[in-house]
Amino acid sequence: MSVQDLHLHIDSVSKNFGGVQALTNVDLKIERGSFVCLLGPSGCGKTTLLRIIAGFENVDSGRLMLDDNDISMMPPHKRGFGMVFQSLALFPHMSVAQNIAYGLKLRGVSASAQRDRVDELLHVIELPNIADRPVSALSGGQRQRVAIARALAIQPPLFLLDEPLSALDAKLRDNMQIELRQLQQKFGVTTILVTHDQHEAMMLADELVVMKNGKVFQSAPPSTVYQRPADSFVADFLGAANIVSAVVSSKGQIELLDRNFDVAVDHPVGTNINVAMRAEHIKLTAEDQAKGNPIGTVEFIRDLGPSTELVIKVCDERLRVRSDNATMSELKLSQKVGVVIDSNALSIFRA
């Protein structure tokens, strides 16, 4: 990332609340115009980090650099960031137009310029005819779009979102994820979203930041995090990988599920390791076609429509397998199958 592309540098930020370490040396470089998702389990520190970026919490150590300017101690109203909260925080006594124009009015923008900006944004969010409607009369999806328009009205340098879609039903949430990404791309605003929804993060993010216990475990594009997780926590948290114990049996080989696999591994012979494998990277064959691959027993079958999910017991491990292969539907419970593992798709971590 060039100096010109670097927009926000979260530089070794730590935060403590009454003896509880909420953040520890968080260091992130956020590119201008990118969409960044902070992802992790409850209590991992992602909302605390977003509140520090917004200015609602102060850092204990470290600093925030926005375009080479230290904003660590700057109050929220001077940062000028756009925010959308989980509650949306729209003003129920105001019309849609008044809600969107609120930030512009506080900044002394003329009434005619406010009207022009509101009209522009209502067309962008594809709700051009609701300016005079009370927000209480809007659907959940419409309120969501109005909240986004209000946050973007002031043309903020950063757009911050704290789980804004979590209260929506599944279908509307999926549609709003697409709309949110399209709006972000139209405006080109650097966006940081807090979510615990893996699908949402994978769908929206240019950069995925996986957190746990106040620390960043991995920061990379979604495909990299999914295919090459930094450790077993990231692998298991994102996409529920199969995590299986193994051992380095010889140079370039590991012993996994009572079989030896050729795998590029740097650990010494005898090292205990954990191996992560995605459900879609495991294939099944008829037992008599196993050709030296492990043999497993079908313990669970679930038809998901476009794909089939199974649980296969191999040795003492239970592996989740997912495939769009139509022949999967022919498998039966307790049936013996060959288990073919793509050794090129394995992620290996020291146990």
From TrEMBL:
Pfam families: ABC_tran. The keyword ATP-binding applies. GO terms for molecular function: ATP binding. InterPro entries: AAA+_ATPase, ABC_SmlMolc_Importer, ABC_transporter-like_ATP-bd, ABC_transporter-like_CS, Mo/tungstate-bd_C_term_dom, P-loop_NTPase. Keywords: ATP-binding, Nucleotide-binding, Transport. Residues 8-238 form the ABC transporter domain. Belongs to the ABC transporter superfamily. This is ABC transporter ATP-binding protein. It comes from Ahrensia kielensis.
